[in-house]
Amino acid sequence: MSNINQIKKETMNLVIAGHVDHGKSTVIGRMLADTGSLPEGKLDQVKRNCEKNSKPFEYAFLIDALKDEQSQGITIDAARVFFKTEKRNYIILDAPGHIEFLKNMITGAARAECALLVIDAEEGVQENSRRHGYMMSMLGIKQIAVIVNKMDLVDYSQERFENIKKEYSEFLKDIDVKPDEFIPVSAFKGDNIAIRSANMTWYKGVTVLEMLDLFKKEKHTLEQDFRMPFQDVYKFTKFGDSRRVVVGTPTSGKLEIGDEVIFYPSGKKSKVKTIEEFNVEDRKQIKANNHAAFSLEEQIYITRGEMACKVSEKNPNLSTRLMASIFWLGHDPMILKKEYYIKLGTAKVTVRIEKIVKTIDASDLSAKEKTQIERHDVAQCVLKLTKPMAYDIASKLAITSRFVIVDDYEIRGGGIIQEALEDSAKWVRDKVVVRDFKWQKSMISSAKRSEKYNQRPTLVIITGEKDSGKKPLAKALENRLFEDGKIVYFLGIGNVLYGVDADIKNKEEDPKEHIRRLAEIAYIMMDSGAILIVTATMLDQEDLEIIKATVESDKIEVVWMGESVKTDINVDTRILNKEDIEENVGLLKSILEDKGIIFKPW
């Protein structure tokens, strides 16, 4: 074995894209075969299957993973395949070329560090060739080589190659993309894939494999700020093992034992106690793109969708408003006011368009003013989220700026975040950052209190119109939970206005400061492990955003008293009949049981 093979190689994520039938799969199959990256006997097996079925052998069959791909003759999934050169290992994301499957390409390209764009020498530049180029630009992929394939079908014509190079270069220049190289190849014949072609002596550049090894590994593996979308907590109980292990896959940076980590958007902090790996002892460090598992010195309650970062490094952006470029792929247009989901890392948040700044047709770069985003349009939009999400902007850290838009359980589009915009609760979050930094922690963790009290700390907000029965219901609920042995407290908004807020001379002068102080009281009460029931008249969504900036949103239950919600607030439960207090108390208690806030008896 060579010394190179003994050294642990770096890994690079590569996406290969192009119009349907332009030969992406054949390029990949040839690279796998020419680098010896196939399982032993795989090439012969595929060739025998082709002979058995009386069909000509194609290198594309080496990676066609889905049964209907060979019958339809198109690649319909973003397949992950692996191959290696002397320099590094590659994870290849084979992005579909058919226009119906562009959404899979966006998913595949989201983690790519470099790209190969494949164009058929005979067919030339197609509409999807331009769309793929635009998406590479939009996703922030800077290292790109253009592969002009099937040169054997045009008699290895230099003139044909130069014409395609000129046409496509002009298009890419308009979207600020400068390819590292144009490479004429015949993937089927093997010309200029791994071996320099004797049929194109006029070409003096590198082969495809040489080009890949010339691409530079993105510095995010070690040098950029640590980012890890939090996936889950694994618990171990066998043989007295009480470990709680945080798991996820870092997208950038590194993490070591003793580093202080902070999770956004909750702002919870702890130090790395151990780094865990199956059948490996004394691991000291976690690096980007490798599955990570670590335990914390202080157990904290975190939920899927948080982003783990290092306290000592630059924190991500955190807001409910952002400027983004979106590539839309849904059959139905993306419209104003409709709610969708935005997924970034493990976070999934409800989102809607606040404003469409401009739209662009990605195939010809024509710009238009529209009130909705049509299929295959690229649009610059202001997006409004229902709760804060941690992210970076594309110019600073591309991998954690990339997202997809989901509608009706399917990916309908994708894009990048270009700018962080201020929202109405930013001033509150700024105060919370200082509060959390100065906060003196108790020796008793939140998890221990929950276990002791047999409940989860929760803020129950009962709002609605004046005289709608909020206070009688809140007091009755408090009494029922107290009789059940729960740690519970009722707090009316008046208790805050004429107590903690007594220093505010003009009560109408700063209404949002009243809400912030109420939220801080709730934070303290919940830190003690209590269930807090609050009543306030006609709270709106901006009020709720202020509270969510102070108190974890997954620990808030919003109840509206009245037949119809009279503000824009997002509620969890609506109480229609204010007269039957006992029935309403039973309903709310059942909801708290169903959500695991209090124990549900058998």
SSE layout and pairings?
Blueprint: H1 3-6, E1 11-18, H2 24-34, H3 42-52, H4 67-72, E2 79-84, E3 89-94, H5 102-109, E4 114-120, H6 127-138, E5 143-149, H7 158-174, E6 181-184, H8 208-214, E7 228-235, E8 244-248, E9 254-256, E10 260-264, E11 268-275, E12 285-287, E13 292-296, E14 307-310, E15 317-328, E16 334-335, E17 340-344, E18 347-361, E19 367-368, E20 372-373, E21 377-391, E22 402-407, E23 410-421, H9 426-438, H10 446-453, E24 458-464, H11 470-483, E25 488-492, H12 493-497, H13 511-527, E26 531-537, H14 541-550, E27 556-561, E28 573-575, H15 581-594
InterPro entries: APS_kinase_dom, CysN_GTP-bd, CysN_NoDQ_III, G_TR_CS, GTP-eEF1A_C, P-loop_NTPase, Small_GTP-bd, SO4_adenylTrfase_lsu
Keywords: ATP-binding, GTP-binding, Kinase, Nucleotide-binding, Nucleotidyltransferase, Transferase
EC number: 2.7.7.4
Q: Keyphrases for this structure?
A:
602 residues, alpha/beta, Rossmann fold, Elongation Factor Tu (Ef-tu), domain 3, 4 domains, six-stranded mixed β-sheet, six-stranded antiparallel barrel, 26% helix, disordered N terminus, nucleotidyltransferase, kinase, transferase, P-loop_NTPase, ATP-binding
Q: Detail the poorly predicted runs.
A: 1-7, 65-79, 94-105
Side-by-side strand order of the widest sheet: 2-3-1-4-5-6
Count of distinct structural domains: 4
Mean pLDDT: 83
User: Which range best describes the helical content: under 10%, 10-25%, 25-40%, 40-55%, 55-70% or over 70%?
Assistant: 25-40%
User: What count of helical segments does DSSP give?
Assistant: 15
Name the shape in a single word. elongated
Specify the structural class. alpha/beta
Percent of residues in beta strands: 25-35%
Largest sheet: 6 strands, mixed
CATH superfamily of the largest domain: P-loop containing nucleotide triphosphate hydrolases
Indicate the CATH architecture of the largest domain.
Answer: 3-Layer(aba) Sandwich
| Secondary structure tally: strands | 28
Tell me the distance between the termini: 63 Å
CATH fold field value of the largest domain: Rossmann fold
Radius of gyration: 29 Å
State the name of the first-level CATH class of the largest domain: Alpha Beta
GO molecular function, one term: ATP binding
Organism: Muiribacterium halophilum
InterPro entries: APS_kinase_dom (IPR059117), CysN_GTP-bd (IPR041757), CysN_NoDQ_III (IPR044139), G_TR_CS (IPR031157), GTP-eEF1A_C (IPR054696), P-loop_NTPase (IPR027417), Small_GTP-bd (IPR005225), SO4_adenylTrfase_lsu (IPR011779)
Keywords: ATP-binding, GTP-binding, Kinase, Nucleotide-binding, Nucleotidyltransferase, Transferase
